[in-house]
Amino acid sequence: MNKLVILLCLILAACGGGDPASVVPADCGPNADKLPSLNVGDMGFGRSSVVVRAGDLVKITTGDNAVQPGHRYTDKTVSAPALAVPSGAKCFKFGANGEYGLHVANDDATVYVRSSISETIFGILDFPALKWAFLILVLVMPLASLLTWAERRQSAMMQDRLGPNRANIGPIKLKGILHFVADALKMIFKEDFIPANVHKGLFALAPLIAIAPVLIAFCIIPFGPTVYPHVVTQVMPTTPDQAQLADSIRMQIFSSDFGLIFYFAVLTLANYGGTIAGWASYNKWALLGGLRSSSQMMSYEVSMGLSLVGAFLICGTLEPGAIVANGASETMSAANPLNWLWLWQPVGLVLFFTAAIAETKRAPFDIPEGEPEIIGYFVEYSGMRWGIFFLAEFIEVVFIAAVVTTVFFGGWQVPFLEADGFHAFGGWAPLPHGIVALLQFSSFGLKVVLLCWFQLMVRWTLPRFRADQLMNLGWKVLLPTSLAWIMFTALIKLIFMA
Amino acid sequence: MSAAHEPAEEVSGPKIVAEHTTSAGKTVRSVQVVRPTDADTSFLVAGAKGFGVTLKHFAKNLFLPLRGKAARAKAGAPGDLSWINEIETVQYPEEKVTYPERFRGLHRLTLRDDGAVRCVACMCCPTVCPAHCITIVPEESDSKGIEKRPAIFEIDELRCVVCGLCVEACPCDAIRMDTGIHAGPVEDRGDAIETKESMLNRGVKSIAKQGGAGPNWRDK
Prior knowledge:
The structure holds 2 protein chains of 2 kinds.
Chain A: H1 2-16, E1 23-24, E2 37-39, E3 47-52, E4 57-61, E5 72-73, E6 89-90, E7 92-94, E8 99-103, E9 109-114, H2 121-125, H3 128-158, H4 179-189, H5 200-217, H6 259-280, H7 284-307, H8 309-315, H9 320-326, H10 341-344, H11 346-359, H12 383-408, E10 417-418, E11 421-424, E12 427-430, H13 433-461, H14 467-496
Parallel strand pairs in A: 1-3, 2-4
Antiparallel strand pairs in A: 3-9, 4-8, 5-6, 7-8, 10-11, 11-12
Helix pairs in contact in A: 3-12, 3-13, 4-12, 5-6, 5-12, 6-7, 7-11, 7-14, 8-14, 11-12, 11-14, 12-13
Chain B: H1 7-11, E1 15-21, E2 27-32, H2 38-41, H3 43-63, H4 68-74, E3 108-109, H5 124-128, E4 134-140, E5 148-156, H6 165-169, E6 175-176, E7 193-194, H7 196-201
Antiparallel strand pairs in B: 1-2, 3-6, 4-5, 5-7
């Protein structure tokens, strides 16, 4: 236990107490473009320092738009002679280009700015790593683990069987939900067998490569509305004042203008997990599975990306949070289900969902796994190493459901629920901000669960494709259709929405 | 086109349209091949139909509460199956299916009227046993008119193939497999060996005549 505490302290020290490496020399000229600038890093997480003088404005630049008015920035370490920035100084907006800065009030000082760490509880709750841990540990992992049980139970229901229903702790049975606990325990305590002749380093690395990108990709998903803690008990006013919006917790870890491109880029890396596992296993069948996995990903990545281009054209943005917040058309409310993209991009929805299911490597696209012929790239894995591949597959199922929800089904929007309550048929039922946020948060979860259910339905209904049929579908059907759909969407946009 | 939807046409194979004999004496047939239509081969149509089937079963089994054969028996009028689900699973330890009358279970040794073992150690059953799982060591019997009885009678249930030939071979109805019990789990191989005592504990008195007197017991 003591060692754990020491380790924790060391990690914290490494994160917080390191020597600032990049000191930007100050230029204290009056011109705004020559202001001393602080780059606090991407994703609102980082620290930097700059030498400033009294009365200076400090320009803060970041890799994304995580720096917002109302966020608090602290000067944790300030060298002599004087404290330059009052502790907890608020960042404010200045300049025509939407830059953000701090006002330095005192004498010359070296200012260290660490973003997104605040002394208030709301600032801590808005910390990206904390939000990520919440999303993964509270929402994604439990849902993915439950899916391992749900898949067997649901397939049983579809085939007139009962499925796993007996795992229990004493009298607590919960319809067999505890089977996933039993499975996890079994896999953890199984022998971790590593065959002779495998490449030991890559063999150990492959499961991590398979699971890490999926967990990272969740950063772009807006899993709830932005919560303003100071108004949770009140109905959100139409024009809220600065005090009410002083603190905010944004239910999205990483909002950037290239959001969905980020997901394409990162999730592709997961495929290396399968390919490397196949190669490192020193097994011909595993290698075949890895190669199949590569070829399948390559074929379906293309259509997957192109099938969303229509959605990008309609919305004019790649940022999932903006797609959810604005909807397809500016003339309608984003909470109107008719303004969600399923109606505007039906072909895009079908194409994307098909390609995305292929991306998860599950039936009817389970060629890389190929249970009847080659078992797949993880044939040599046992115990929890195999379990990680298994779990990664289900996390991908959850992720695909989350992306489809976000892009095509209005994300966290509840039909006709605006920020201040329900607006339908000319009426208005006001609701406090807290209840609205809770409803919207649940709405996202419900949509994700329903889409996961639908993916399991697909998996247990459709027979698997042959490898050549798979390639035919990818290159000869999905790709031309998605290209034609982009042209069609562009034409519609040009004629009716320009 | 409509021919493709006629099941009779499909199973009858290629349809012979014309048949003639060439000058070389060979028969040449023209056949009409019935090919599936686009609607038959389309993945979308077939997939949508499949979804209908699986969704119907899923919804019915999820929302209709009664499960299992016992519950089905309680459901009311026999034949009225419209409102119960279609799950066929028998929840074994709680629910059991009735075994057929001739089910071959664990062996038992039958008893005579005086409670002595009926077996005369004639060695017919170890001789006929294809798995060589029966061990009999005979000893002299003190009963009048009966020469031998088994001192040891053991059956290794792990080797037994439950063929029932021992029962068929027995001339005096001394061994039976009509207990209706199936071999239970054991933690040690030795525990699976049935002894004379354990089989006699399950024993019943046989009414068959012994020693060749009277009519054949099989005629009863």
